[in-house]
C-alpha cells in the first residue's frame, strides 16, 4: 500500500468516526419523543456501524471479505440516512440544519463506498 493510499484510508476512518459522533450529538439534542428515542437508537447503531465495518474492511483477510465489509458500510450509511429522515428536530432550525448536513454526509459516504466497490 502506498503512503497516499494509507493516508486516504485513515482519512476515511476519521471521517466515519466524525459522522458517528455527530449523529450521537444530534440524538442527544433531539426532543425526547417516543419516536425520536426509538429512531435515535437505530441512528446511533447504524452510524457507528459505517466506520466499524470500514475498519474491518481495511483488515480483511481476502478481497472477497474486503468487498463484503465495504458493502456493509455502504448499507449502514444508507440506513443512517433513513433514520436521519425519520427523526424530528421539532422547531429547532439548528437541529434541522445539522440533520440535513448529516443526511448529505451519509449520501457522500454511500457514494465513496460505491466508488471503492467499482475499483
- Helix content percent band: over 70%
Number of domains: 1
Q: What is the C-alpha radius of gyration, as a whole number of Å?
A: 15 Å
Shape field: elongated
CATH class: Mainly Alpha
Strand content: under 5%
Number of strands: 0
CATH architecture name: Up-down Bundle
Here the CATH topology equals de novo design (two linked rop proteins)
How are helices and strands ordered from N to C? HHHH
What is the straight-line distance between the termini?
Answer: 15 Å
CATH homologous superfamily caption: 23S rRNA-intervening sequence
Total DSSP helices: 4
What about the largest sheet? none
- Class by alpha and beta content: mainly alpha
**Average of pLDDT:** 93
Any low-confidence stretches, pLDDT <50, length ≥5? none
